[in-house]
């Protein structure tokens, strides 16, 4: 049976952020301040003491809550400051529970043991749907639904729905169509920011000829590889095909997939272009793929690293300053236009209590997002957040582009898939693309493996 996405037919409203591309392209050239060497990862300026109060929250003295997410490092640390604000306002005590991928399996073990967290942040719409189908997720109450209706575009509301009911608050969003580069490397090599795929290949060759390996890839984390594929596929095959493949309405053996994989192999197939070669890339986790690009001055392990706006969090763990040492350009156009793929994390209630509903309501409000925005390395789809809350010009440009795009976006394809295919380490799309990174000559074999795994996961 074919599916129209990971929740309902409303998911088909996901479109590329076309408006974002032009805004981000200009905004990314701006110089940032206060972003280097801050171990909180946010590149944040001093957070003002005053906090916005726009949502009424109940008194919850003595109540305890747990919220689970796969976030680590600075991302986790910053989110805990948001939870601290909720504690201050309500009197409740909130514990952050570190989860492992796939989070659905993690939650399943907790539920089987009789100790599920009260809420969880799910990084895939497919995981939200699975949580609903398993009877774990609880609908959002009236207060949280009111915040969603007031603060979110219809598209962001819809991707948190299953069968017309709201289950997920998309607390965090991401622009996953950016390539970050070591500015010293580019300047020394005489490389220019590319706008097309061919220009990216030229820039890579220029960097390589200067004595620096062009790309750092966090291949140990399979999700980074799916993001590479999705950007190429969206730009090359177009939005309609993207939607069809995301819903498994066309097979992974389709010629459009072959074309995208062949294009991807133009970089992945050049061992000398990858830090550590394919073997090294497959042993590199995402955070290290970023930090090794921005340490070592003008002789880092690589000159460029692809991933979303959240790369700033990891750059903040180095001595590089974003905007001077570390710069960024939009993922180049492979087809007629440059892609912009969006992602996000949805807060879902697992234990339907007054306190859990209050925390979901808080996370749907501009109050929570404003606290997090000030810490840096974060974008919110909440349109009520003031742009001044973001700590630097580039993040303000990214956030403004996200809000101005409204419903005009396309969501990360692998996140729309059943988690067994699109979000499980060592399985499905993650594993197939890791194998492809290891042997980019095997396009047909990769397509066959992707299709077999997709058919099993979608129940076709």
UniProtKB/TrEMBL annotation:
<keyword id="KW-0813">Transport</keyword>
<comment type="similarity">
    <text>Belongs to the bacterial solute-binding protein 1 family.</text>
</comment>
<dbReference type="Pfam" id="PF01547">
    <property type="entry name" value="SBP_bac_1"/>
</dbReference>
<protein>
    <submittedName>
        <fullName>Sugar ABC transporter substrate-binding protein</fullName>
    </submittedName>
</protein>
<dbReference type="InterPro" id="IPR006059">
    <property type="entry name" value="SBP"/>
</dbReference>
<dbReference type="InterPro" id="IPR050490">
    <property type="entry name" value="Bact_solute-bd_prot1"/>
</dbReference>
């Amino acid at each position: 049976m074919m599916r129209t996405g990971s929740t309902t037919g409303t998911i088909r409203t996901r479109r590329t952020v076309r408006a974002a591309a032009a805004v981000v392209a200009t905004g990314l050239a701006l110089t940032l301040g206060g972003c280097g060497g801050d171990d909180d990862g946010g590149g944040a300026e001093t957070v003002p003491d005053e906090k916005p109060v726009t949502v009424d929250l109940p008194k919850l003295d003595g109540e305890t809550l747990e919220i689970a997410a796969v976030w680590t490092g600075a991302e986790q640390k910053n989110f805990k400051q948001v939870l601290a604000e909720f504690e201050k306002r309500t009197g409740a005590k909130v514990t952050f529970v570190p989860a492992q991928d796939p989070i659905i399996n993690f939650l399943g073990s907790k539920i089987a043991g009789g100790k599920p967290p009260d809420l969880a942040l799910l990084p895939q719409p497919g995981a939200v749907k699975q949580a609903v189908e398993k009877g774990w997720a609880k609908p959002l109450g009236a207060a949280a639904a009111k915040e969603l209706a007031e603060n979110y575009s219809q598209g962001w509301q819809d991707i948190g729905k299953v069968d017309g009911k709201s289950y997920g608050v998309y607390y965090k969003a991401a622009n996953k169509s950016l390539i970050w580069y070591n500015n010293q490397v580019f300047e020394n090599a005489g490389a220019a920011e590319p706008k097309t795929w061919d220009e990216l290949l030229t820039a890579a060759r220029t960097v390589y000829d200067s004595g620096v390996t062009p790309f750092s890839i966090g291949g140990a984390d399979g999700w980074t590889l799916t993001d590479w594929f999705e950007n190429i596929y969206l730009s090359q095959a177009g939005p309609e095909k993207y939607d069809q493949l995301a819903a498994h309405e066309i097979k992974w053996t389709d010629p459009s997939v072959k074309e995208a994989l062949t294009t991807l192999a133009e970089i992945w197939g050049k061992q000398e272009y990858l830090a550590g070669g394919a073997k090294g890339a497959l042993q590199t986790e995402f955070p290290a793929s970023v930090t090794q690009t921005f340490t070592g001055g003008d002789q880092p392990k690589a000159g460029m690293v692809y991933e979303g706006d959240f790369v700033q969090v990891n750059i903040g763990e180095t001595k590089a300053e974003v905007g001077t040492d570390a710069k960024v350009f939009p993922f180049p156009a492979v087809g007629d236009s440059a892609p912009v793929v969006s992602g996000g994390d949805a807060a879902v209630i697992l234990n339907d209590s007054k306190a859990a509903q209050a925390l979901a309501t808080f996370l749907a409000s501009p109050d929570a997002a404003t606290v997090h925005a000030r810490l840096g390395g974060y974008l919110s789809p909440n349109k009520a957040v003031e742009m001044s809350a973001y700590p630097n010009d580039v993040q303000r440009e990214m956030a403004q582009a996200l809000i101005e795009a409204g419903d005009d976006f396309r969501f990360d394809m692998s996140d729309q898939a059943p988690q067994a295919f699109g979000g499980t380490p060592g399985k499905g799309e993650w594993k197939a693309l890791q194998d492809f990174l290891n042997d980019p000559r095997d396009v047909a074999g990769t397509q066959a493996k992707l299709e077999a795994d997709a058919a099993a996961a979608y129940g076709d």
